[in-house]
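Hi everyone,

Forwarding the result from last night's run.
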Amino acid sequence: MATKKIGILALMAFAAVTAGSSIVFAQEFEGVGVCRKCHLDQADAWSKTAHAKAYESLRPKVKAAEKVKAKLDPERDYTKEPECLACHTTGYGKPGGYKLDMTATDARLFANVGCESCHGAGSQFRREHGSADDLLKSKGESTSREVLVKAGQRFDYEAACASCHLNYHGSPVKDAKAPFTPFTPEIDAKYTFNYLRDVLRSGPGAGVHEHFKFKGVFKGEPVPAIREETQKNAKESD
């Protein structure tokens, strides 16, 4: 009898989740290694950016002068500080994201500001990328980007950037909240963040990876508002 009740409750829960014929799955972070399988050029370009080395700056004696300016101890190991890991790793504290007890092999895929830091946890939408790519190759048809939105892909890149780069006291972003970053324009002008300028500045040492031409796998909205700008000098990917 007890087993039957549990089965009924499970069916009721499933029915509630699938109401309206759309199943809701929890999004999980999967790490840059998964993204790299299909987006090799982007991953290689990203590996040369500051984002790819974000975790390293938390180690003792790394970027010591910057830490002193921000009133941080340059001798201290910040690699286990939650308030730092939130912006220096991918998905910290979230399903599938960076964890302190990860193996060294797994940590290399998440101890950075990776693809999913900007594009969102990819466990669901990356499947849509694969299906859309197959459709384009087999039938020459593009897929609506709406399927990516429904699957959890993020297109509000400006908000993603602001959540770390503009999260300080006196920030122009209204929803800035603790823990705040100590690296602010007040201590050094180089921490002044301008979305349009910084997202268009790609290449080695920059924050974002090189921009590549869209292949027509997806069509329609939504796309970043600066799409035309990023595509002007975008490279052809292999």
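The beta strands are 143-144, 218-219.

Cheers,
N.
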